[in-house]
Amino acid sequence: MLLVGVMGGAIWGIGHLMDMPTKARWSMIWLLLVAVLMAQVVLPADNPLRTATGGSAAPWLILIAFGAVIAGYRQLLGYLRVRADGDVAVETPRPEAFSETELDRYARHIILREIGGTGQKRLRDARILVIGAGGLGAPALMYLAGAGVGTIGLIDDDTVENANLQRQIIHSDARIGMPKVFSAETAMKALNPFVTVRPYNRRLTDEIADDLFADYDLVLDGTDNFATRYRANAAAVRAGRPLISGALTQWEGQISVFDPAHGAPCYQCIFPESPADGLAPSCAEAGVLGPLPGVIGAMMAVEAVKLITGAGTLMRGEMLIYDALYGETRKIGIQSNPTCPVCGAGQKAAVV
Ligand SMILES: [Zn+2]
To answer: 64: CA distance to ligand 1 center in Å?
Structure first.
C-alpha cells in the first residue's frame, strides 16, 4: 500500500510542478487506484506486483467506494450552488461596487452627464456580441473592452493573416496564424483585465445563432459576407435584439442600428436580397482603405455605448454614409418594408 501511496504522491507532485489542473490530477489518481484494483483481481495470488500492492482487492474496493461517495457529494454541492445562483454558466461574480482602479479608469465616462456612474454600471452589466474580429470588429472590440462593457462575446472562424494587418489593428504581427478570436481576446484583456471576453472560434450558423443571441443584449455585425449578414439579421429579429451593422467598400463606409422591436427597419428591409456575384466585391477583391474600418467600427462601438447607457439618439431608422475620399458624410432615412420576409408581414406568409 505504501508503494501506491508513493505513486499517488508523485502524480500529485509532478502534476503540481507541471501546473496541471486539480481535476486532471484527481483523474490520474483514480486511474492508478483502478489499475491497482485490477492487479488484485487479475493477477495470481503470489504475483510480486499483487503482494506489493496489498495482496487483496477488499481494502482497495473500500477506498474507491469511499472516494466515490465523497466525489459524488462534492458534485452535488457544486450543482446545488450553481442552481442557487440561478445561472448554469459559472463566472467569477463581480463585486457590486467599482474598485478604486475601475473608478479611476472610467472617470472620464462617469463625469459625462449622459453616462455617469449609473451608465458605467449598465456598461459593466451589459453583454455584447460582436460578429467578426476583422476590420470593423477590431476597433469595435477594443473600444467596447476599454469602455468597460462587462461581457463581450466574439465569433469568427478565421486566423490572423499578414494581409489583415493593414487595417485589423487588434491583431499583431507576432500573432499571425492564431485564430482571430484568441488574438483579439489577448489584446482586449491586455487593454482591460476587468472585462470578460468570450471567444467563439467558429462560424455563425443557424444552429447556434438563436441560443447565442439570446445570451446577449445586443449584437454588432462586422462581417464581410452577405450570407452571414442575412443570418445575423434574421437571428437578431427573432431574438428581439438590436443589430448595429457596419459595412465597407473601398473608400466608403456605412452604419445603421437595425431594430424592428423599436419600430426601425431590419437589414433585410433595406437590402432585400444579396447582390449578384461580382456586383459587390469583397475587400480582398476591391481593396479597402486601412483606417476606414477604424472610423466605422469605432462608430459601431459609440452606438453600442449609447444604446446600453440610454445616452443621445440612436441611428435607428437612419443610415450614415461616410465617403472618405471626399471627407463627406451624409445621413439618409430608412424605412421598414411592410412585406419584409424577416420582420414584416412577409414573415407570417413565410411561416405559413
Ligand atoms: Zn425587415
So the answer is: 61
Domain boundary among 60, 83, 106: 83
Q: How far apart are CA 240 and CA 215, in angstroms?
A: 12
Dist. CA 257 → ligand 1 center (Å): 12
Q: What is the pTM of this model?
A: 0.72
> pLDDT grade, residue 296 (50/70/90)?
very high
Q: Are residues 255 and 307 in the same domain?
A: yes
| Domain termination residue (choose one: 83, 105, 123) | 83
**DSSP secondary structure, 169-228, as one string:** TTS-GGGTTSBHHHHHHHHHHHH-TTSEEEEE-S---HHHHHHHHHTSSEEEE--S-HHH
Q: What is the CA radius of gyration of the chain?
A: 27
CATH, residue 150: 3.40.50.720
Per-chain residues with Cβ under 5 A from ion ligand 1: 266, 268-269, 340, 342-343
**Domain span at residue 54?**
2-83
- Give the Å distance between the CA of 110 and the centre of ligand 1: 36
- Tally the C-alpha atoms within 13 A of residue 5's C-alpha that lie toward its C-beta: 3
| Model confidence at 230: pLDDT above 90 | yes
